[in-house]
Amino acid sequence: MPYALSEKTRTFLCVMLILISQQGGPGAGASAVISPEQTSGGPNGSAKTSATVALLVENNRPFIDLEFTRPDKSIRKARFWVDTGGGGFIMVEPLARDLGLKFGPVMSEGESQFAATDSPVARIGSMPLNLEGARTMVAIGQSSMMPGVPAEGLLPGHVLMRYHVVFDYPAGKFTISKPGTVKPRGSSLPSPINQRSGFPRIEAKIGDQSYGFLLDTGASFTMVSQEMLDKWGAEHADWPRVKGAVGAANMGLGAIEADGTMMRVPRFEISSYQLTGAAVVSRPKGTFERYMSQMMTAPIVGAIGGNILKTFRVEIDYANGTAFLERKAQADPHDLDVVGITVLPQRDGSYSVAGISEQNSQMFQSARRGDRLIQVESLKVTGAPIARVIDSLRGKPGETRLLVLERDGKQFEVRAPIIRVL
Questions:
Q1: Does the domain formed by 337-420 have CATH 2.30.42.10?
Q2: How far apart are CA 187 and CA 330, in angstroms?
Q3: Are 97 and 161 in contact (CB under 8 A)?
Q4: Which residues contact residue 40 at a Cβ distance below 8 angstroms, ignoring those fewer than 6 apart?
Q5: Alpha helices (runs of H) in 202-329, residue ranges in sequence order
Q6: Picking from 5-14, 161-170, 344-353, 363-372, which range would have the lowest pLDDT averaged per residue?
Q7: CATH classification number, 187-327, choose in 3.30.70.580, 3.40.190.10, 2.60.120.200, 2.40.70.10
Q8: Greatest CA separation found in the chain?
Q9: Mean pLDDT over residues 102-117, rounded?
Q10: Which of the four pLDDT bands, split at 50, 70 and 90, describes residue 35?
C-alpha cells in the first residue's frame, strides 16, 4: 500500500479506477476483473512463462525495473514500486509522455491529480507484462510516485493477481510466472484475493485471537488501526508503546505519523512462524475497518508490511488464493535505534521535521515541528531518497548525529542523540 498521499486518496483512487474500468475512453478495459487464464492473451501475450529480476528493497519497500517500448520502438526502463495493496497501474507524467500515451479527463484529490490512459507495452525481464484491461493512470505533475521515493510507477495487486509471484527479500529477487507453472514452496496460509482490487488477505494470531490483515508489500512498516492499538494497550499495559513514527515506520505522511502510535507486540504468529517483538504503527480509526475492508474478501484491522516481510521469501499463488512464507533472515532488534524525529519529504525535494518522538524529549529544547532539515552529518538531504535520510539517522544508542536545521530563514546546528525509541 503506497500511502503516498493519504489513506483517503488511496481509497479515492481504488474506487475511481474501478469505475473507469467499466467505462469507455483511455484506461478503459472490457472488464475490471481479469481471470488468470487471460494472462497469456492480448497484445502482450507470449509463450514465456516466467521471469526473475533484481528486487531492490529500500526502506523495506520493493522495487523492480520495467521495460517499456516508446513509439519509435526504442526501450525505456523505469523503476516501479511493487505493491500488492496498490489500486492502479500508475505512471508519473514524464514517463507517460515519453511513451506517447494519451490522457483522459483529469481527476483531483486534494493536491494530487490523475488522468486515465491506455495501457503501454511493458516487460519484466524477458517476459511481456499483460496489462490488457488494466486500470492505468497517470500522476499529473509528478516526477516520482511520492516525495522521497524515486519510483516512476506503481505495479499493483490487480495486475499481479494475473500471475504467480515471489518476493525473495533476502535474496534480492522478484519472480513473476504464469499461473500453474510454478511449484510453491514454504509454509502455506490461506490468502483469499478480492477479485476486484486484487488485494490478498491473510490472518495473524496476536495473543489468543486471529486478526485479518492486508498482505501489503507497498508499506514499509506493519500498520494497525489506532482503535486496535488502544485496545491492546488497555489489555496489555506492559506492551511497549510510544508516540511518533520513526525509522521505517516514517513513510512520509506528516502529522498522521507524528501523532501516531508505535507498539511492540511480544508475539506475532503468521502461518507456522512465531515472531517476537515485531513493531507496528497506527493508522487513524476507520482506515482499515471502514475503507480498506471494503476492498478485501473479509474485514481487516491492518496491513502486514515490509518490516516483517523483509525477512521472508514471500510467494503468492493468486489463482489458488494461497500465500507461502519461507523465513530466510532474522529481524533486526535495533531497527528503531535512531534519532527520534519524524521527517516529511516535500515535493521540491526538501525535508521538514514533522514531529519529535516523546522519547527524544531533550530535542524539544532546540528543534521544533516545521523546522526545515538541511543536513544530517555530511548528507545534504534535499533531493535524497527518504530511505537514505532515515538511514542517516540510525546508529547505536549513545551516539549522536549533527543536524543542520533552518527556521525563519536562519540555519542552526543540533547535536541529536540516537536512542532506542522502542
A1: yes
A2: 16
A3: no
A4: 46, 47, 130, 178
A5: 226-235, 255-258, 306-309
A6: 5-14
A7: 2.40.70.10
A8: 64
A9: 89
A10: very low
